[in-house]
Every structure is written in C-alpha cells, then in structure tokens.
Amino acid sequence: xxxxxYVVVGAGPVGSLAALYAAKRGHDVEIYELRSDLxxxxxxxxxxxxxxxxxxxxxxxxxxxxxxxxxxxxDVTASTIPMRGRMIHGKRANGELYEEPQDYDIHGxxxxxxxxxxxxxxxxxxxxxxxxxxxxxxxxxxxxxFKKCKAWFEVRGQDTSSDRPAEVEVDFxxxxxxxxxxxxxxxxxxxxxxxxxxxxxxxxxxCEFQINPREVPGESSEKDLNAKFRISPNxxxxxxxxxxxxxxxxxxxxxxxxxxxxxxxxYTKLEKDSSQLPQFFDEHFPGVTSLxxxxxxxxxxxxxxxLPLISIKCRPYHFSSxxxxxxxxxxxxxxxxxxxxxxxxxxVRILFATLDKHSAADESNNPTxxxxxxDPAFQRGLAxxxxxxxxxxxxxxxxxxxxxxxxxxxxxxxxxxxxxRKFLEEL
Length: 427
Ligand code: FAD
Fold this sequence. Notes:
The strands form 4 sheets. The chain has a 7-stranded mixed beta sheet with strand order 6-5-14-15-16-13-17. The protein is built from 13 helices and 19 strands. It is α/β, with parallel strands linked by helices. The structure holds flavin-adenine dinucleotide.
C-alpha cells in the first residue's frame, strides 16, 4: 500500500504504540502532543504528582509484542516487577495484624508493576529511532474537519507578539485520536457521526501516597534490592475498607506507589482536619502508619491532588476513513480492573490487524490493477467500520467489569462467601 500521512494526537502510551504500528507499516507519521516531551526532566506529568504505577497484563504485553519492534518488550519489561497476586491486609478481632496472599493464577502466571512514565518514555525512544516519525510537542488539537482531513493545533509556549497563540493547520489522510479521557478528537468527531455517548463520574476520589524504601547499606545485589521492600514486592497490596480502599504497587527502587480510593464526602471531612488522617488510617487500613510516617501521610494528603474517576462509553469510534479514537479517548474506565491502559494498547493491535486484513483482501481482489494499488481510503473505511463494531462490545464489557471490580477489591475479598468460593475453586 502507498504510504499515507497518519497524524496521531496524544503521545501517551496508546498514541505512542499506535504511532509505532503505523511507522512500521511505512506510513509518514506525525505525532502531536499537548505537553512537552515527558523525557525532558522539567516536564510535569499529566495529572499525577510523580507518575503512577500501573499493572501491565498479557493484554498490553501482547499488543507491544505485535509491534514487531526489536527489543521493545525487552526495553519495556526491564524495569517491571511481577505481581503474583493480591496481598490482603487486615486486623483480626484480637487486634493482631495479618497479611493474606491471594494468587491470581494457579499456574503462577503474573501481572507486572510498571511505572507509567517509564513505559511511555521507552515507547517514545523506540519511535524516535524510526526515520518516518516526526514529533510535535506543545501542540494542542483545537479543531478538526474530518471531511476535508484538516486539523488545527495551538502551538503552546511560543513567544509571539500577537495576543493569540500561534496556530498551525495540518493535513492528513488518517487521524488517530489517543488524547485521553477528555479527548478533543472525540469532541470534534461527534460533529461528524451520530455518536452515542455516556459518561459517569463515580463517587470516589483518589490520592497518591508513597511507601519509601528501607535504607540498606551497599545496594548492589538483587538480595539488597529485595531487602529494600518493606512489604512483599511481588503482590498488589490491598487494605480493603468496605467503602474505602488503600492499595500499594511496587516500584523497582524498593518503594511502593500507593493510592487511597474513597468517597468524596470522606475526603471533605478529612480535608477539614487532616491531622485526623493517621487515626483514620489506623482504624481502616491497619499497619499503614508503620510503613508511612504519619507526618508524611498528612503532607501527601494535603499536597497531592484529590482526583475524580470517570467512566466513558461511546460508539462508534470512527468516521468514514479519516479518523478513529483509541484508548481512554474511546473508553476511559475506572482503574479497578487494572485494564484501562492494557485495553487501550490492545485497541492498537486490533485496529492494525483489521487495517492489514482489509488491505490484503483488497489487493488480492485487484490483481490486474496496473498501478498495483487499491484505494487506501476505501479499504480503511471498511476496516474502521469493522473495528468499531467489533471493539465497542469488548470495550463496554471491560468498562462494566472495571466498575464491578471496585466492589470486589474493597469489600468482597473479605467476605465469607468469597473465601468459600475460592476454597472450592482450589479443591
Ligand atoms: P493518556 O494516558 O491520558 O494520554 C493522552 C495524551 O494525550 C496525553 O499525553 C495528553 O497530554 C495528550 N492530549 C490530551 N489532549 C490533547 C490535545 N487536545 N492535543 C494534543 N494532545 C492532547 N490502566 C491499566 O492498564 N492498569 C492499571 O493498573 C491502571 N491503573 C490506574 C490507576 C489510576 C489511579 C488511574 C487514574 C488510571 C489507571 N489506569 C490503569 C488507566 C491508565 O492510566 C489509562 O488507561 C491510560 O493512561 C490511557 O492511555 P491513553 O494513552 O489512552 O491516554
């Protein structure tokens, strides 16, 4: 197929992988990102205080494997930590603290803890190595015409004499919108297609905390690294609290990134007097104040943002042959199933498999075409319609599972029925 101009909006994990897939197919790829390059140490990570640790699963790894970029998987997984299951923390009636491991898989297969920014940087490094990819950081999509295949970007941080920020017009054959939950591509797409759209903020906010590594003199061997972890490095730790939940995910420096999920009304109460926080934690998340210094607990709560969680469903994901939305732009979900990014990476694999299938089918149907090339826009239009129909069903199902898993993680893991079911499964 003749190379086409692919414009990818958003250089998050999903946009970066989509750009990689497109570049490997020989297209001219331009990737536009609102923020500055996240590999630049002065860049503030989107929404996050530092970065967040995510659970990377086979769904996401498989999508990166199919990028056919040598060493990508090696690069990405170099700093991951396998998590074989949950570790439930609690307190018995007699006041004794306990930890209870619950493996994810009887065959010992694991998911992996990964730093979101680290993963994103490795994807960008791999992209940069390809000659047919151009980056445009500090470019915010402000408008798009999907019939004329034109888009407009505000160029940020430019020193212009005019009051209005500089704007550039960009032509494209195909736009991939991977610009996150508040997607501008989706907003403009809605004007071109009859999109069903549903969004829901759940009554839970999240805030980030940190369990620091233990001081270990002479940190050279793997044994020393393991000694740095204050709790098991190979589990996703959960302190269930019925209405609340505190979780901790390991990082490769021996620390844990922790998240407090709690209804907005509880945040409001504690915001009024955050000195109550250590006592609140002792009551609901026993043992945490021995892992995080109470003063640090309070300062993290006071300084880190208290962020909402949104769940978005929409359909279709495309218009004609000119645009598709992927990742959180198409299906932002609550994080309790650990699949938001994984599902977004999977979107990329399925999208390109569908594009490849239509491209191959069309070429074989036109063997006598003297130019040897079928109409790429026509093929792409068929592929996008198929992709939307196929993917909407799965994405909506994962969204629902993610919402359901909140109840599972914060409460059902403790119930006698859960324990009985697990016991019977293991017989
Ligand atoms: P984003 O990561 O949001 O990236 C979008 C990019 O587009 C950004 O770089 C942004 O700057 C850029 N952009 C936005 N607007 C514009 C514009 N107008 N013009 C140009 N660029 C623009 N997922 C998992 O798989 N596993 C987990 O364990 C997990 N845990 C999570 C925990 C929490 C607390 C949260 C909040 C989320 C979690 N997720 C998890 C979800 C995961 O973070 C997202 O699904 C993932 O980041 C989505 O990637 P994306 O590339 O689609 O969008």
